[in-house]
Structure formats: structure tokens, C-alpha cells
Design a protein that fits this description.
The chain is an all-alpha fold. 57% of the residues lie in helices and 0% in strands. Helix 2 packs antiparallel against helix 4 and helix 2 packs parallel to helix 5.
Length: 168
């Protein structure tokens, strides 16, 4: 199919919108208002008629009750400890490989890999960043993502340790 020019595409989209609006029964869903009794003041021209405001029933959905947990509960503490341990192992393996002539494959870490202090700051910052972002997810009610972030970071560090250990 040949690409259409932008004005032709706009005309096509407008025609599609109009055709959809004509064929869609939801567009014409609001019909005429039902016949309702008019106030007596409408018959007297010198009296200003004031119609009462329409009363619209509001149905409030019951809020879902989510079993919240404390941020520093046992699963999070274990995940953070495991993540910190894997980050430390990743630091040790990466430092060892760099001192033996290896190259850092992660371009984000490559900037910090020129010195041991920079490499340590990178891995400490990574761990602190995961804990901080996890706290943000916890405070906004994303409890599944909160745990998943720690697990993904743990898995990424474990994969880096495994790869670095086998490719010395």
C-alpha cells in the first residue's frame, strides 16, 4: 500500500470519524428530555421561572481493600540484602576482570570503571537507587512492581556475576 500524504490522511481520518459517528448508536444515545410538569410560574410572564437543579444519582464504587505492608518488612529486607550482596559480588568480579585486562561491557558502568572508587560508587549508587525507586513504588501503591524491581535487579546482577566469572 502506497503511503498517503498527510492532508489525504487527515481527510481519510475525518471521513472515518464521521462515518463512525453516524453508524454508532452511542452518538445519538441522548434523546429528547422526557415530558415533565412545568412550574406554574411559567404561565405568568411577570414572574421569572426558576427550575430546580437536576438531581443526578451518584453511585460510588466501594474502594478495593489492598493488603498493604510495611516497606521494611521481611521480604523487602531479604530482597534488599540479596541485591546488595549480588551488587558486591558484581563489583568484585568486575574489578577483578578489569585489573586482569578485561573490558567493561556495560556502557553505563564503563564511565565509572576507570578507578576502584568509581566502580564502588557505581554499584553502591545502583543499590541505593533500587531501594529508593522501590520506596517510591511502595508509596504510590504499586506493591507488586515494588517487589518485581528488586527481583529484576537481583537477577541482572546475578547474570553479570555469572557472565563475568565464566569469561575471565
Amino acid at each position: 500500500m502506497a503511503a498517503r500524504s498527510f492532508p489525504n490522511l487527515l481527510q481519510f481520518m475525518a471521513a472515518l470519524l464521521v462515518a463512525g459517528g453516524i453508524c454508532c448508536p452511542a452518538v445519538v444515545a441522548q434523546g429528547p428530555l422526557p415530558e415533565s410538569p412545568r412550574p406554574a410560574a411559567e404561565n405568568a410572564p411577570h414572574v421569572v421561572a426558576s427550575y430546580p437543579a437536576a438531581v443526578v444519582p451518584v453511585v460510588a464504587a466501594t474502594p478495593r481493600v489492598v493488603a498493604e505492608h510495611r516497606f521494611w518488612d521481611t521480604p523487602n529486607r531479604l530482597l534488599f540484602a540479596a541485591s546488595a550482596a549480588m551488587s558486591a559480588a558484581d563489583f568484585a568480579v568486575t574489578r577483578s576482570n578489569l585489573q586482569n585486562g578485561g573490558a567493561e561491557l556495560n556502557p553505563m558502568v564503563r564511565v565509572f570503571g576507570r578507578s576502584t572508587a568509581g566502580l564502588a560508587a557505581n554499584f553502591a549508587g545502583e543499590t541505593a537507587g533500587v531501594v529508593g525507586f522501590t520506596y517510591l513504588l511502595h508509596k504510590t501503591g504499586h506493591h507488586k512492581l515494588e517487589r518485581m524491581l528488586s527481583v529484576v535487579n537481583l537477577g541482572a546482577s546475578a547474570a553479570a556475576v555469572g557472565y563475568g566469572s565464566t569469561h575471565r
